[in-house]
Amino acid sequence: MVLLVPDDSEDLAEEVFGTSDDSGQPKAQLDDGEASKATQKVDLDLDDAPFLEDEEEEEDELAFSEEETPLLEEKKKSGFDFKSLLKNKMVLAFGGIILLLIVVIIILLFRSPEETESPPPPPPQVEEPVQQEIIPEEVVEETPEILIRLDPFLIEQRDKDNTIRFLEVRIVVSTLEDGLARQFKQETYTVRNALFYYLKNKDLQFLSDKNNSDKLKKELLAIINQYMGFGQFDTLLFEQYLVR
Fold first, then answer.
1. How far apart are CA 176 and CA 233, in angstroms?
2. Which top CATH class is 146-243?
3. Using one digit for the tens of pLDDT, what is the confidence trace for 88-132?
4. 3-state SS string over 103-144?
5. Is the distance from CB of 230 to CB of 184 less than 8 angstroms?
6. Domain locations in the chain?
7. Phi and psi at residue 168, in whole multiples of 5°?
């Protein structure tokens, strides 16, 4: 690097080349030997003055630092103010929520399948009862049973000791046929005489035996039905049966 020292060089130039007066002509001229000695002296003086280079380097560094300082200050001013951000409660709360969400997502992603809750089973399907059509049954009108009561019989009998005994009998027949009932009423007198004749001629020992009750009923029922032309009686009951 070549440094220019204006004051010393002008003095040296005047010494070497001589001074000039106001008319522009040199006052004195040096010979070639003196001029070469003078230039050598200047070069030696510059080499022997390293402090001049240090001063110039310091000046360049100061100038460079002065140029960099406003840029750094601008960077600091335009930089992110982290301290003021930490003082903002809303920012801290928002950051905490985001952090919590990230933690929850990580837990859910790395959670084992066994730990995941199985969905609840679907509710059992309730089968709606099928309403069956109820077909109303045909109501069969029951024909009222017709009961026909005969007047009581009082029949005189003699036992084995020839003692007079009396048989009291009240007979009831039943039917569902109205025509048969009307015919019986018409033939009541005839039927009654036939029944009386049968009981009168029957042995008192047979009539007194309870074991002969069913047989006696069948025989009396057969006597009644032989006089009926519109139907037959199926039932005969003893409303009263007494031997005294």
1. 9
2. alpha beta
3. 677 778 888 888 888 888 888 876 555 555 667 777 777 766 666
4. HHHHHHHCCCCCCCCCCCCCCCCCCCCCCCCCCCCCCCCCCC
5. no
6. 6-64, 81-109, 146-243
7. -105, 120
